[in-house]
Amino acid sequence: MTDPQSFASPSLADALRAVADTIRVADFEAARAHAESAIARGLVHPAFHSARALWFERQGRDSDALASFQQARMLAPKDARLMNAIGLCFIRLWRMNDAVALFDEAIRIEPANSVTHQRRALALAFAGKAAESETAYRRAVQLDPHNAEALGSLAAIAARNGHAQPARQYAERALRTDADNGTARAALALVDLAAGDAQAAERHCLRVLENPQTVRHGKAVAFGLLGDALDAQDRTAEAFEAYTKSNGEHQKLHAPRFTGVASASDAIGAAITILEHAPPQLFDRLSRNQAAHDDAPRHVFLLGFHRSGTTLLGQALGSHPDIATLEEHDCLAGPSSRYLTSAEGIARLSALNGSELAETRADYWRQVRDHRIDPDRQIVVDKHPFHTIKLPLIHKLFPQARIVFALRDPRDVVLSCFRRHFDVDIVKFEFLSLENAARLYDLVMRVSALCRERLALTVFEHRHESLVADFDAQMQSVCAFLGVPWHQSMRNFAANAQGLDRRSLSAAQLQRGINGDGIGQWQRYRRELAPVLPRLEPWVGRFGYDPA
Questions:
Q1: How many Å apart are CA 409 and CA 146, to the nearest integer?
Q2: DSSP percent split of the chain into helix, strand, coil, nearest 5
Q3: Quick one: which of 546, 522, 436, 506 has its CA closest to 231?
Q4: Whose CA is closest to 315, among 501, 503, 517, 518?
Q5: Looking at residue 378, what is its pLDDT?
Q6: Is 396:454 a contact under the CB 8 Å cutoff?
Q7: For residue 324, with 0-12 CB atoms within 10 Å meaning exposed, 13-18 middle and 19 or more buried, which class applies?
Q8: How far apart are CA 539 and CA 175, in angstroms?
Q9: Cβ neighbours of 219 (radius 10 Å)
């Protein structure tokens, strides 16, 4: 390593050469030292700030890396490579809109840069824009047929869609360029798992994890798929360890996003305290029938908890010609923040009437229509399991709405939340810990029980296990509750699941149709679940599941 103080001369050329040489051999600490020495001697060049940024990146200090890259860009505002580097920092800091905007600017400067298109696709994927992301990946491959990361990502998309042959073709193309491409190997693991070859999937995952270049999101994905491969071989203790490592990587990746933000559990716990201490007249006012004449004639909320079968039921209902399912779009976000976050807000909600009430309802229906659903022509099923915590708001705004409450064995629910793959948000961040997942489940069920006890709700308890055992009979019962005739088109829910977001685990499972693979899975992980079983036990009994 060259001593940064031993330059033959303080010239800019010598300093740049020293930085470049150390970066070339991946000695980023030495590169940073050379860069800081040059800056201290008054030398000015974007490469010095970039070298510092590269070192910060490898320390996991993404905010510092971003600041250094931005200092470099002040000296070279049209440098597309710097824009790419800053865009990657935005991705790691979960600033996806900023990342996409910067990649767009870089593409205007260098429209044929395949890497920029590939990184733009990555940001779009994390932002939940799956179709736009796939288009951007395809553009990257058009510009460079050997872009291994773009090819690997197209393989992963095809694998999630259940398209094994193109997934393998894309993955093999990626691996011919980069034999260690983790995205391509993860796609092959998915294909092998779907084909029942868990050992081959395990080998792909281990290859990814043995690569020292695999970091962050790549590690999280590989450990998660390894867990699935081990689970398929009935090696449950090893599988649980892999799921735990996957979640640990996700925690490290996403924790900075939620620093200083109240956890979902803490927020719900505070709401429960407010509701438990609220005077009876508050609930009387919440239940007062103030239905507006322009309400949809039949309106349903499909609630419960994540991984309780709400996606399956929502798709089956949405296959009925007289029903439209709104898939987890939060049309209640505004009033929730106004009325459900404090005791004063809940008191305002209970007294809500007149024009404010009418406008709040009207805004909800405007958003529903924005999703191409016409409440004047079809029953609207607003499917959002976590909106269970919004029952006071739902009942105040729509006292005539019906509630379908999805149930599944609480132990299967919590295990599934812990070991399956989600796009992490403030709620699903809780699922990365088994204890937090169980605590959150308990709190949501407490909200449900409290509201069902004190509000005049019209509720149908839908049991996932019953639907799996006898689809037609259970759907006939749900239809009777909703006041519509059973329709055989509901059996076609698997075909209709093609339109769901393919990053969703539930969507991928729905394509395979009805199966009972997830029922009773908790028993295989009884030892691992032991610390949380006491918290779940009251709900197991309350919902009528076998305590054994």
A1: 48
A2: 65, 5, 30
A3: 522
A4: 501
A5: 92
A6: no
A7: buried
A8: 48
A9: 21
129/206 Cα distance (integer angstroms): 30
Smallest CA-to-CA distance from 417 within 537, 526, 343, 309 is with 309
Instruction: Name 302's bridge partners.
Output: 383, 404
Residues contacting 460, CB < 8 A, separation 6+: 402, 403, 404, 405, 477, 478, 481
Is residue 38 within 8 Å of 32, Cβ to Cβ?
Answer: no
User: Which residue in this structure is represented by tokens 């507006």?
Assistant: 292
In this prediction, the residues of the chain whose per-residue pLDDT falls under 70 are 1-10, 289-297, 496-513
Q: Is this prediction's pTM over 0.85?
A: yes
- Report the SS3 class of residue 485: coil
Q: DSSP letters along 316-339, please?
A: HHHTSTTEEEEES--TTHHHHHHH
Report DSSP letters for 348-397, one per residue.
HHHT--HHHHHHHHHHHHHHHHHTT--TTTSEEEEE-GGGGGGHHHHHHH
3-state secondary structure of 97: helix
Which 8-state DSSP code applies to residue 25?
Answer: T
Nearest to 93 by CA among 244, 259, 218: 259
| Nearest-10 crossing angle of helices 216-232, 410-419 | 130
Core vs surface per residue 58-89: b (16+ CB within 10 A) or e: eeeebebbbebbebbbeebeebbbbbbbbbbb
Q: Give the integer Cα–Cα distance in Å for 73 and 76.
A: 5
Question: What is the tens place of the pLDDT at every residue in 41-100?
Answer: 899 999 999 999 999 998 889 999 999 999 999 999 999 999 999 999 999 999 999 999
Q: How many CB atoms lie within 10 A of CB 475?
A: 23
One DSSP character per residue, 204-218 reads HHHHHHH-TT--HHH
Residue 226 near residue 209, CB atoms below 8 Å: yes
Note whether 520 and 232 are within 8 A (CB): no
How far apart are the C-alpha atoms of 183 and 423, rounded to whole Å? Answer: 17
DSSP classification of residue 406: E
